[in-house]
Amino acid sequence: MGREGHGGGVLTSVFSFFGREETEKKPRISTFYWNQEKRIVQRLEEEVSTCVEIWHSYVHPRVRSIFSFAELDVILFQLARNVNKDEDPITGGSEDCVLWHGDITVNNKMEVQAALCIVHKDQTKTVGFTNRLLSFIFADDDSYALLQNLPVTKDALQMACGNQLCVNLAHISI
User: Fold this and answer.
1) In sequence order, which residues have a C-beta less than 8 Å from that of residue 118 and are 6 or more positions away?
2) Are 104 and 30 in contact (CB under 8 A)?
3) C-alpha closest to that of 98 among 157, 170, 49, 173
4) In the chain, pLDDT over 70 holds for what percent of residues?
5) 3 state SS for 52-82
6) How much helix, strand and coil, in percent to the nearest 5, is found in the chain?
7) Rounded to the nearest 5°, which phi and psi values hold at 65?
8) Which of 63, 78, 60 is nearest to 126 (CA)?
9) What percent of the chain has pLDDT over 90?
10) How far is the C-alpha of 156 from the C-alpha of 26, rounded, in Å?
11) Distances 86 to 99, 108, 113, 134, 152 between C-alpha atoms, Å
12) pLDDT in tens, 53-110
C-alpha cells in the first residue's frame, strides 16, 4: 500500500498518508461542490498555474526524494483547483479556514475528512488525507519532527479549528 520504491515507508509509517488503494469496487467519494452553503469559486487555469509556481518555492527538500516534480505538480494542481480562488492554504495565514471542495473520505466515526487521490506511475490510485500530505510537503523541520511524534492513526490530522474539511496548513493541530 505504501510506495516502497520511493520512500513509501516514510509516508506510510509516519504520516499514514496513503489511506487505501482505490479499486473498481471501492471508488473514492467525489464531493465537488460538497458544501451547499459556500460553493467554490474556482481559479482560472492561469491562476492555478501561478499558485502552483508560488507553492513550489515553499516545498520542503525532503519531498523531492519521494515525489518527482511531475507527481508533485499533480498534487499541487489538485490543491489549487479544490480550494476557493481567494483562499491560500499554504501562505494565507492562520486566521480563516480554507475549505476543501475536493474528494473526501469518511472515517469510522462517520466524520468527513479532506482527501486527495494520487495516480502513480503504474496507474494505481491511492487516496490519502489532504492535511497529512500538506504537512509532509510544507512543514519545516521542527514541525515535521513534532508530527513524527504523533501516534500513527488511520485518520487525518486533527485541525485546531475543529473543521476536518479545512486544509489551512496553519490550522493543523500539533
Assistant:
1) 71, 74, 75, 125, 126, 127, 128
2) no
3) 170
4) 78
5) HHHHHCCCCHHHHHCCCHHHHHHHHHHHHHC
6) 35, 15, 50
7) -85, -10
8) 78
9) 55
10) 19
11) 11, 33, 22, 19, 33
12) 999 999 999 999 988 899 999 999 999 999 999 999 999 888 899 999 999 999 888 9
Confidence bin at 38 (pLDDT 50/70/90): low
N-to-C CA span, the chain = 26
All three cell numbers of 18, joined, read 496513503
C-alpha cell at 54: 508560488
Instruction: Report the residue count for the chain.
Output: 174
Least confident of 18-27, 30-39, 98-107: 18-27
pLDDT digits over 109-121, tens only?
898 999 998 887 7
CB 73 within 8 A of CB 52: yes
- Sheet containing 18-21: give its strands across: 18-21, 125-129, 112-119, 104-106
Angle between helices 130-138 and 141-148 (to 10 degrees): 140
Give Cα separations from 122 to 36, 48, 82, 96, 173 (angstroms): 36, 26, 25, 38, 34
